[in-house]
Amino acid sequence: MKRAYLLAWLAVAAVAIGAGAYLLFQSVMPTEGPGEDRVLKLIPFTVGEISAVDVVLDGAPHRFARDAEGNWFYHSHARQGDAGEGHSHVVDLKDSERIAAALNKLFATDVEETLDAGGAAAAEPQILVFLYQRDDPRPAWRLLISEGDPDVAQRYVTIPDAGTTAVIAEAPIRGLITLIEGIAAAPAEPDVEK
């Protein structure tokens, strides 16, 4: 009796895991509709579903997070100009708009081609991106992004959570790098609304 009960629970767990994997892969794998191809997106979430983004650029960590009102801010532990205070959770409304714009472009990125996992990006990624959903300490989605090639306007991105490597346009990644370089170097000067 106990064995049958255990086998039944294992069967239910296997079905639940299988259904979850199917739904995840349906959200990232292309499907074809009548007479049209569905575009594969790099990230199977909307920006609104994500509460924090960790980016490791050339070994340096950066974090973008949302405050209680949903505004993005650069979470700094060593932002230039903090004069030793070292830890900052300041929402600058102009920075929030810049962060949102760069992340919207990243989330809207189309996959141009998929390859077997473990390609060029996995060998030595220049950028690591970890996306977090609210109240979950584990990354919901991870990206390992290759160094850009000056002769080709594309990047390789290994997506461990989908078991694939994708080829994407350079522009959204360049926008993310430009955002980090601009915000990380700027002193924190919050806007105050009255």
Please provide a written account of the structure.
Strands 5-4-3-7-8-9-10-6 form an 8-stranded antiparallel beta sheet. A hairpin with a 2-residue loop joins β3 and β4. The chain has 2 domains: 30 residues; 139 residues, Sandwich (Immunoglobulin-like). α2 packs antiparallel against α4. With 194 residues, the protein is α+β, with helices and mostly antiparallel strands. It is 31% helix and 26% strand.
Please indicate the percent range of residues in DSSP E strands (runs of 2 or more).
25-35%
As a percent range, the share of helical residues equals 25-40%
Topology order in helix (H) and strand (E) letters: HEEEEEHEHEEEEH
As for the number of domains, it is: 2
At the first level of CATH, what is the class of the largest domain?
Mainly Beta
The CA-CA distance between the termini, in Å, is 68 Å
Average pLDDT over all residues:
78
Q: State Rg.
A: 20 Å
Low-confidence stretches: 18-26, 29-36, 79-84
Largest sheet: 8 strands, antiparallel
Overall shape: it is: globular
CATH fold topology of the largest domain = Immunoglobulin-like
Widest sheet: strand order?
Answer: 5-4-3-7-8-9-10-6
Tell me the number of helical segments per DSSP (H or I, 4 or more residues long).
4
Helices and strands: which structural class?
alpha+beta
Number of strands: 10
Can you name the CATH architecture of the largest domain? Sandwich
